[in-house]
Amino acid sequence: MPLFPNTPVEKMTEPYHRRWWALLVLCLSLLIVVMANTSLVVAAPDMTKALGLSSSDLQWVIDGYTVPYAALMLVLGAIGDKYSRRGALVLGLLIFAGGSVMGGLVDETNLVITARAIMGVGAAIVMPATLSLLVAIFPRAERAKAITAWSATSGLAIAAGPLAAGWLLESHAWGSTFLMNVPVAVLGVVGALLLVPPSKAEGMGRIDYVGGLLSMVSVGSLVYATIEGPHFGWGVGPITAAVVAGVGLLAFVAWELKHPNPMLNVRKFTERPFSGSMMAVLFFFFGTFGSIYYSTQFLQFVLGYDALDTGIRLLPLAGAVFVGAAVTGKLAPKLGVKIMVGTGMVIGTVGVFLLTRIETGSTYTDFLTPLLLLGFAIGLSLSPATDTIMGSFPEDELGVGGGANDTALELGCALGIAILGSLLATSYKDKLTDLVGGHLPAAAMDTAKDSVGGGIAVAEQVAKNPQGGAEQAQTLLGAVHESFAHAIAHTSLIGGIIMAAGTLIVVAVLPGRKHTTKHGEEDVAAATEEQSETVDA
Q1: Which helix (H) or strand (E) holds 334?
Q2: What's the rounded mean pLDDT across residues 46-58?
Q3: What is the pLDDT of residues 274-333, one digit of tens each?
Q4: Phi, psi (deg, nearest 5) at residue 534
Q5: How far is Cα 85 from Cα 98, in angstroms, rounded to an integer?
Q6: How far is it, in rounded angstroms, from Cα 192 to Cα 23?
Q7: Burial class (CB in 10 A: 0-12, 13-18, 19+), 448
Q8: Per-residue model confidence as pLDDT tens digits over 392-434
Q9: What backbone phi and psi angles, to 5 degrees, belong to 185?
Q10: Are 117 and 67 in contact (CB under 8 A)?
Q11: Is residue 130 within 8 Å of residue 76, measured between CB atoms?
Q12: Which residue of 66, 94, 173, 340 sits 20 to 30 Å from the alpha carbon of 109, by its own alpha carbon?
């Protein structure tokens, strides 16, 4: 048995015998690229203090990762298909590790944002490579189980990121939350070379680079506009980006429709299983990531938990993801994609609506049930939706399929954090103005309205000021807490309504169990045949 697997998957006459070890490497690689986003949630307060970040700076430290991540996945997935999926995984991990080293060592805001962007490029290579390799390595009869493990890893990262970052921040500076990625990335590279076989598309034609460029411009401009506009005002930049995104999308569709070998066959969106599953991923992560984002802030800023305590209190969400994944693994083959995805979205919507009960006196217990529901919903619905999306692509387009799935996922996360975050900020600002407007100097009021962290900082300054005192500071702190609780309840109402509307759309679009595309019938037949051969053996 050779130390390094050199036989391409496409030339193997039987399933790769170390495929479950390869899956472990793929899930480990996925884990760190998702954790890079979630860990920053608890590291943000330390970074803000150390670097003197403004609200705009912090937003771009977070989203400097998101823009290239979302914009590049489709085209980089296609390049991985063409040349080497394993090579793409290794290259992506190395770029990601390089960005992490840079982010952990620099101490200037623009350099941190640049490091995050480099990490985003690496993640955009890694993410579709993990999914395309998974589908290439596993026979059809085992793919659903493997994709369930892949999906559960995404949910685990939501809790693992804050937990790992919180543990490091107990005794290390914020840079450690970047550097923790490096050993894991190196382990992923070694594991990929030792356990993951090479794979690439056979007979793939020339890459549609024009379509790839149009997709990058469209998605990148859309993400930029949704981040910049709601948070900082619809000036020339965000409006221009929105127009570019719209025009670019139309140009992309027109180009792909006439191209003989398109980057993404947009006619797939007329197939109900594919389009319904894509919308499910987008709507689902819009609501769940936005909700987790501001729930974490409440735990830290209002309830006073430190980074480690916050990470620990997100662990039930990770446990619920695994329970949901186990349930969907048992029931999806019997009940079908529509029921599992629809049920998961309903449960997730209920979880978001439960956050409308948050008020000033709320405790962690009030967040526990919503977190459990959101985690269970992720485990229940993500795997069937992803399996359906990947099943819509032929073997020579698996990287593109992974890129499409992951773009929907990341776009949903970005839109959820941007739009719901903007609603949260506006609601908080308006409520705080109603409660304490006119009682603070203009500069202090502006700082307090900027964010809940700013409001707490102003209250601390009032307590130290002889003209203020502890009583006035406590009054202001109470107003800040009340305003933020009100903002969470109001934002969760809007988010829940959007999730409910998305659920209705997805359920209407996804076909029933008896309706499958020709491609889907072939997949089912092939899977059944493989299962029969396994039994006979």
Answers
A1: helix 315-335
A2: 80
A3: 999 999 999 988 988 888 888 988 998 899 888 889 889 988 998 899 899 889 988 988
A4: -65, -40
A5: 20
A6: 10
A7: buried
A8: 988 778 888 888 888 898 888 888 888 888 889 889 999 999 9
A9: -65, -40
A10: yes
A11: no
A12: 94
Q: Which 8-state DSSP code applies to residue 248? A: H
CB 154 within 8 A of CB 30: yes
Q: How many residues does the chain have?
A: 537
Residues with Cβ within 8 Å of residue 280, at least 6 apart in sequence: 341, 345, 381, 385, 502, 506, 510
Taking only Cα atoms into account, the Rg of the chain, rounded to an integer number of angstroms, comes to 23
Cβ 139 vs Cβ 17: under 8 Å: no
Instruction: Indicate the pTM of the whole model.
Output: 0.84
Output the CA angle 152-153-159, nearest 5 degrees. Answer: 100
For residue 229, what are its two tokens? 């506009």
Q: Which residue has the tokens 């469209």?
A: 218
Say if CB 251 and CB 210 are below 8 A apart: no
The pLDDT tens digits for 120-145 are 999 999 999 998 999 999 998 898 88
The first and second tokens of residue 140, run together, are 């059809």
Cα–Cα distance, 487 to 422 (Å, whole number): 10
Tokens for 331, please give them: 């029931």
Distance of CA 192 to the CA centre of its chain: 23
In the numeric block, the tokens 């559960």 are attached to 152
| Residue 296 CB neighbour total at 10 angstroms | 23
Band of residue 53 on the pLDDT scale cut at 50, 70, 90? confident
Cα gap 403→73, rounded to integer Å: 5
DSSP 387: H
Among 329, 310, 314, 321, which residue's Cα sits nearest to residue 347?
Answer: 321
Q: Which amino acid is at 495?
A: G
Residue pair 120/65 in contact by the 8 Å Cβ criterion? yes
| Cα 273–Cα 209–Cα 81 angle in degrees, nearest 5 | 60
- How many C-beta neighbours within 10 Å does residue 523 have? 19
